[in-house]
Please model this.
Amino acid sequence: MEEKRQTVQHEKTEEGWEPTIVAFLCNWCSYAGADLAGVSRFQYQPNVRILRVPCSGRINPLYIVKALQNGVDGVLVSGCHPGDCHYISGNLMARRKFALLKRYLGYLGIEPERVQFSWVSAAEGARFAELINKVVTDVKNLGPAKQLVKKAL
Amino acid sequence: MEKTEQIIRETAKELFNSGRVEILIGYEKGTLPFRTRPVFIRNAAEADRLVWNSWCSNNLAVYLPGLFEQKKHKKNEAPPLPPKVGIVAKSCDVRSVINLVREHQIPRQNVVIVGVPCSGMLDAAKIKALLDNEVVTEVAEDGNTVSITGRSRSSGTKVKRDDVVFNACLECCSPMPEGVDLLVQGTARNASQNKYDRVKEFESMAPGERWNYFLSEISRCIRCNACRQVCPNCYCKECFADQTNPRWVDAGDDISDIMLYHIGRIFHQAGRCVECDACTRACPMGIDIRTFTQKLACDVKDLYNFVPGFSPEEPLPLCTYKPDDKQDFITEP
Amino acid sequence: MEQGILAKTDMKKFIELLIKDHRKVFAPVSRKGRVLFTEVSSADEVKLDYRNTDLSPKGLFLPQCEAICTFTGDAFQEVPLTKDKQVVFGMRPCDAAALSHLDRVFTEGSQKDPCWLARRENTVIISIACSDPLDSCFCTSVDGSPVAKKGSDIMVYTIDDTLLFEAFTEKGKALLTLASSFLKKPKESALEARQKYESAAVKKVPALNLADIKEKLRGCFDLTLWSSIAERCLGCGVCTYLCPTCHCFDITDQTDGERGRRIRSWDSCQYSLFTLHASGHNPRPSKKERMRQRILHKFLYAQDNFKETFCVGCGRCIRSCPVNLDIKETIAVLAAGTGKGA
Model:
């Protein structure tokens, strides 16, 4: 049995440490919004790695916790605005999961700013850029993630 | 208590004689002092094995999914009929049964719930701690007083019953079982009004302190999976923790994997955990799992006004949504 | 030095000497109401008035998880074996006997386990004879006793206010010699008191009648007893994890890009995955087969393979089983040959 895992390699220098953020974006709204930001040449921090999913409802909370285990410094999950989900209710189902997960991780003592959720529509290119900038700044202020990170081999 | 025990035995005999059950799950005397253990009886003659006392702390609902598993049968034959099962259940166990019905794991019409009002079960660990290392030879109850005697004549103490009852029982907000088929006569303790005090107390700690507590508790875990096996809600044929593709959780004692296992398992209980305390009681290392399961139950009640185990029809909170669900956790850039 | 006397109040001195002279000292430590063998750096941490630990000390020799090798790309690197001089202080005779059972598994035959051997060879076992067995103890039923010497390098007998140390092996004698500056030579009366202590202790653990159990077990494969025990079992594996003679393990690889390590970690025959084949077939499909396997392995197959019973009667499985399954009860029923449901 094998576990394939790629831990995030950090540049752990005092100054110049850059966080790594993983963003799960729903295909129909948030990913399109990110695309629009790119096409419109809106500048945003390059620290984000985007993973496209069909719907925010597809996100298993374990993906978020596993990402933290693999060493990412922050996780962003973004979907369609409630009422606009391409699959009608995927984001509405997800909203409950995310609400509980966010509270739960905070309860354990994990910094709340590390895991963030948002709704970004396909037309909101500028807003997407602002969102990324906000999340990266928040995580940068927290420093490298240490709590759930698995020891490097 | 003795009267309740007698009624349980009579009820069991009646259920067998009327053909209403084929198997009855209850408690019998254990082989160690201050223990009972689950018993499966199959006829009225065995009913006198059943006991009822302050040591009936197991949640017997855990056996139900297994009893109703579809058995293999020959292609041309009809599938065997599901058994008719009776279960002696405290209020927390009843809620587990109702939740299993809600999740389509057991057919309600094949289960006869014999509900027993509960005054709270005694915690052997608390009792032993009172006598330090002395061997406890007797625990006698007299109303609200419990007299504990140690092996040497000079050791012994009298305490209020609530001082040696499980924390979970102190916080129980529905000690009188609801939704049962038969309610046995007995005394239930007063329902607690302050159910989530422990959660609020924990939340008032600084985040670093909370993390350190979580770390110090979870680092004692030996990955035996007892918490999962005693939980009536953990009936998955393949647990996420055992999956190899994807490999969520590695084998071994890496603290990060241990945390992931517990976070994952407890989060899978969101909206389903009835807080029966079976996981905390089963843990051989005495980990305070309860502080970490209660938070989800508290949030589900707070956000979605839902408490599992009371309605076999109401949709589970994570299987439904409302247009006006709270979303104050959403980041607005 | 083979024997020595120490006042009970001076026990701390002995432990301090152990800490000074050895890289690691493991002793019973109380944590949140549980007593476990933990590395100690001062005698104050040691809890000596305990009956037995919750987790057995087998984890000190067969760790719950250990890397057996690492690899980078195609190249394997061996994990260096321990050379740390260690002492385990405060073991019970049952746990010490269990270690010598496990020696048969890990050191006999053509394949010797180097990780196990390295730890065993570098560790001195100091046992403390039992005077206060629990209800669940049954060492005398499985060729053991509260004062049995098997597996210990040194035994300590607590007789009133004195401690009598006795070494049985070269390792033990060398360690006692180290402490010879404050250990006194025991008088004849001390040795007589020890005899009395031993007979009294053995009487406290009445033995079950397990005559002919081997033959009874040979014929027990199809008894209905197994179904009725398994009915209660939750398959949690606590019994195997706490047991000092259970030794099943799993080998898994953890990789991270090019690098990886192969680890050995505890496994349990009580898990449904244990004998699950890749095809989906499972020769032990239900708890009944798995429970039967555990009992037969300990009381029959180990006898056939090693002429030893792989159960030392410590009673941990009975105490910690969430549903109070009782191995003592099971083997008593099997030995009596009744075989109906327990």
In short: Chain C has a mean pLDDT of 91.
